[in-house]
Amino acid sequence: MRTLLSFVKPYRKTAIIAIVLMLTELAVELWHPLLMRYIINKGVIPQDMTEVLRYGGIMLAISLVGFAAGIINSFYASRVSQGVGADLRGALFERLEKTSYADFGRFPASTLITRITSDVSQVQNIVFMGLRVMLRAPLMMIGGLTLALTLQFRVSFALILVTPLLILAMIHVIRKGFGLFRSVQERLDRTNGVMRESLTGMRWIRALVRSRHEVDRFTSASGELMEKTISASRWMELTIPVLLFVMNLCILFILWFGSREVEASRANVGDIVAVVNYATRITGAFGMLSWILSSVSRARASWGRIGEVLVLPEESTSAGKGAADQTNRMAAGERRESGDGEGPEEALDGESGPSAAALRAASVTFEQVSFAYPGMAEPALEGISFVAEPGQMVAVLGATGSGKTTLMQLIPRLYRPKTGRILLDGRDTAELPAETLLAGIGYVPQEIQLFSGTIRENLLWGKEEATAEELAAAAQDAQIHETIMRLPDQYETMLGQNGVNLSGGQKQRLSIARALIRKPRLLLLDDSTSALDLKTEARLLAALGKYRCTTLLITQKISTAMEADRILILEDGRLIAEGDHESLLDTSTLYRKIVESQFGVKEAAGHERHE
What we know:
24 helices, six-stranded mixed β-sheet, 10% strand, 12 strands, alpha/beta, four-stranded antiparallel β-sheet
């Protein structure tokens, strides 16, 4: 895992300038009591105005230097902290893009948002404080204590006794605060999660009249966050009055004992005033240190949470390893190979090279594949074996939770099988470079994902260099072109987040068009026609026949499955039957029940006779 210093390193020159300026400001502040001592001892007591003006002028001059150093230091410290924050957010986002889909799923979206925003802000603030005031507080304590002891060891002896005890107390406070502020950030995760669910599901909340329930749920989460924040802040803030009380007692002792030393002619008034000034500055440094430690506790908790993301394994695009960054884009329908622009209906005779390979339908083979989700004892898939020949359409049926989507996600390596192999054209997908594996796959997931932007921009996720003619052709095959042309701005129509201004069927067809524009060798449709009417779906399936690709589709519709060359029946993660429609009516009781539930007994028998 990268350290925080590794993020500061690119800005080391700016950071060094900030530290030098901070030390300059500190030196000025440590010089003030000494100059005040000279003014009192050499000017005020002897009533020598020349010395007063002389040392007063020096004090004014170095004060202006300290003022300028402080202003410029803030500028440079801000530059470093903002740069570190931006780099840290970028590193987190990049790691999430490159980690495996399984590892990505370990974190809810709400906690990832909190880690990239709130937690990074806490770390960013501590970097700024580190260059602005964090080093200044302990150095002020050390420098002030050293100079006070040099001036009057007997008078300053109380500071030696008190300071170490207070430092030990503050170490205990920061250790306790770390756990408290980590709990605060976890409550912030929950609050963000409730808010995110409520905002994204607003239409359903209102339709089901659950607004009051959601308000109560958010109020509860927000209340827990408030209580944890108050508890953590109370613990940290209690240290300030305690420190001030102890240090003020120490100053009172210095004044009392110092007056006795002056009366006994063992000390000058200016010396005592300087020691009191140093004690006051040490007191202020303790107050500042308490605030710093509170921020350090927050930042330490936040850095720990950030580190949990930064240590996620990054999948390489090399052979034998995954590539979640490519997979995520593939899932959105992005084309990775540089196609030659030929339509799917053109002949391949005489062609050779990458373009021909990209247009040739792929074979898919499962060999005793089993898979279990992380943390789950029961397998989602167990002992799955089948072959999808090049150019075939294979339909996958089964009840909810039977493993259909899991089976589909294993092919593009969103997850890796626990046992067994998945072969693409006879090659183990686990050994294929991600570019090779994903280049020829068009994947339309069950949960449709569209992005803010125009329809054209969303389609270009399938193939960045696609022409207007290619976009229109894919949209026509996906049965969405006419709908797009009826829109006021046609392909330049702006879509809201996740296509909020489109119907479910329109979003599905647009996602299918985004996959078709890739001219895939293998097309994966995960229940991607569920919102389509039978006529539209029939036209879509007929259009898919123009593409030289193997198609695997998950469906709940028997009318769709009947169009497939092969049907797979899953139950509880096992492949219990396979074949075409007619053979399954004869051999599979479950398939026959599904047909009867959708067509009725007489209709099912009629379909069987028709077949």
